[in-house]
């Protein structure tokens, strides 16, 4: 028996024993171009949606009518309907609450029409609906939550629609396995790669429907060489190294103004790095300075101000270029990369109340960058310099010993690492030539791919929420944001940062607070810019 035969049988069953018996409805209750029996009506060719039906009508069929849209509350006059059929009509839109008041409706067939759009709340209130057909229309997508509240559905027919099988259809693929109903879905009309594919054969896991965006939020007026995030007394903070302003500036979140504000600062002329360390209630800040010596500052408690505590290795740190924090044998240490000919990169570890030199590293090599990382369960240190390839040290016997260098990596200005899928990756910054991404293979770092980066001083990975990003900052072009694709194992372009454009970016950091995520971009020749991280659901 075909679909039309089944519908006819349903009409006869719903009409009851009165079908075929001569019955004259009350005057004015059967509109023109309609045939009425005791409990059912069939209207064909009418130009408008009839309104003068009996309120006890159980079934209504509308065929080839001139109705152009189904508006909210179109069937409030027939609240007893159990079956409603639309076939070969010309309407193209179904609005929210089009079937309001039909709490007893069990069968809704909207077939062979010209429907191209259906509102997400069009079916709201149909709590008795068991059979729904939207077959053979012009629907390319269905709004998310269209079937919300339809807990009694047992049969759904969506066949014959030109569905675009992109992110907008993902919710439907995820919904189908969760319902106790048979669903006929048909095939995809697009995109080209999925044309003629059965919807039921699509794997929701293959859809990439989550995107991110970094939009400008706030500016901090002075230029900066470095930026770090840290947590103190349960609150996230940011510290900026501002050489021209001659200070380390600490920012915190103003919950009233919903902006970042200055909380504290310490004087540090010609500062290149401000490295924070929190030990209980105490906050330490290492201020690495080009001139005048590097210093360690301390805030003994949350209600006190930062105060100078100690001069750091004045005979070894003559021209510091970078500072990093690392933990060795359970103790906090700083490593300061020195770029002078007479100085040396120095490891300073906590000893009693202060931090004192533990080891000199890489003397005479004019180091520009230090990166602490863990490989094979042991602490490692990677030093980049102007005179040779980056050198990897490992912690052995209470000191760092040279392990290997990185081949094919000349003129590397800085290195940063990240972890993904159990692997360790390196981002190597090169001012002239291509910056590089490498992966640790158990014995050495091997090249994965290269990125054009003329004028780059920073290629920094950041894990923000679920996204492993890397930002390639340039002095001559827009800074590029890349995102790590775990399936390919590669960094792929995501967006450019700006406007406003970053002017000579040197470092990036991110902070999460009050359910929001922010990215800080420290710029050497312009103000520090703050961007907000947004997650976008492309399936919405």
TrEMBL record:
Pfam families: EPTP, LRR_8. Residues 1-22 form the signal peptide. This is LRRCT domain-containing protein. GO terms for biological process: myelination in peripheral nervous system; neuron maturation. Transmembrane segments: none annotated. InterPro entries: Cys-rich_flank_reg_C (IPR000483), EAR (IPR009039), EPTP (IPR005492), Leu-rich_rpt (IPR001611), Leu-rich_rpt_typical-subtyp (IPR003591), LGI_related (IPR051295), LRR_dom_sf (IPR032675). PROSITE patterns: EAR (PS50912). Residues 161-210 form the LRRCT domain. It comes from the Eukaryota. It comes from Marmota monax (Woodchuck). PANTHER family: LEUCINE-RICH REPEAT LGI FAMILY MEMBER 4 (PTHR24367:SF268), LEUCINE-RICH REPEAT-CONTAINING PROTEIN (PTHR24367). GO terms for cellular component: extracellular space. It is found in: Secreted.
